[in-house]
Amino acid sequence: MSIEEASWELRSASRQDFKRFSEARAMSERIAEWLATPEGTVAHNPSWGHNLSRYKHNPINETLEILIEIALSRKLPVDIEDLVLRGVHVEALDIDLCRITVIHQFGADTQTTNL
């Protein structure tokens, strides 16, 4: 998209549409940062971050996926302010590697992450 096209879209978009887009982008970035940060690694807030390391080296099966979904469902809304969590789906791809989809008020974000 050229700068002219982007400029026209910003001028023609309603304020609500622009706000919704910027909030969606910000929420996606916050979720990505949270999934990239293990719990206990932020000096000023050690409880912030994902709690997936406890599932490292577990056998890959449906039970593991469900346990990770429950853990994410409990911790994610606590750590990320203003997140309205609508669903979490986890697919184990390999040992210590999974694809996580977080469904929230602005849409869905999918990320592959190490445990």
Q: What are the salient characteristics of this protein?
A:
3-stranded antiparallel sheet; single chain; 115 residues; alpha+beta; 3 helices
Shape: globular
Q: Class by helix and strand content? A: alpha+beta
Q: What is the radius of gyration computed over CA atoms, rounded to a whole number of angstroms?
A: 17 Å
Q: What's the average pLDDT? A: 85
User: Order of strands across the biggest sheet?
Assistant: 1-2-3
How far apart are the first and last residues' alpha carbons, in Å? 36 Å
Fraction of residues in helix: 40-55%
The biggest sheet amounts to:
3 strands, antiparallel
Beta fraction: 15-25%
Helix and strand sequence: HHHEEE
Low-confidence stretches: none
Q: Count the E strands.
A: 3
Task: Provide a count of the helices.
Answer: 3
Folded structure, characterized:
- 43% of the residues lie in helices and 23% in strands.
- By secondary structure, it is α+β, with helices and mostly antiparallel strands.
- Strands 1-2-3 form a three-stranded antiparallel β-sheet, covered by helices on one side.
